[in-house]
Amino acid sequence: MTVHLAVLDPLPVFRRGVAAALSSVGHLVEEPTDAVAWLRERPGGMVLLTLHSAEDIDGLNALCRMRPRPLVVALPSKDVSSLGVQAVRAGARSVVARAATVRALQRAVAATIDGEAVMPAEVADLLVKGRGGRPTRRSAPSAQQIAWLRRLSSGWTVARLASDTGYSERAMYRLLQSIYQQIGVDTRLEAIVLAHEEGWFQD
To answer: What share of the chain is helix, strand, coil (3-state, %, to 5)?
Structure first.
């Protein structure tokens, strides 16, 4: 089955290598600069998205909020277990290490197209355990901290939150990092997901 595929990675040589590997098995591979616009033109397309850090999860989250939800194969470049769990929680269908072999990537893409989810065993193990390896929460956030998280979940930037609360952006960033540590997560996305799971946003 031929599918339109988009490869999103900062390195042109990697994108070309993936394009060659997947074109050789019949797929139509492109390297768009705007994945959202590309998906609007190709609603049945699949995106292969490299993840270098937890911040890249924000981009993945934006893609997975589209309707119809696209097929996304996440390609963590490091911390495959941690980023892989976050990717699945954000909506990626499959996870394949960026350093995977051509054959492994081809198999993962084919399986994802066929409706399967592919991921490393350690990612599946962490998902089954519940919170994907998150450390135990030390203490619940205060009402003010929950209000900050709620604003972030509705799309506020750290800069806007800092301006609204009277802190400098740097101070606000440190305060948020302190909250993440307090509740046992590493990133904004994990904090927001945890807040929803725990019902902190319910009035």
So the answer is: 50, 10, 35
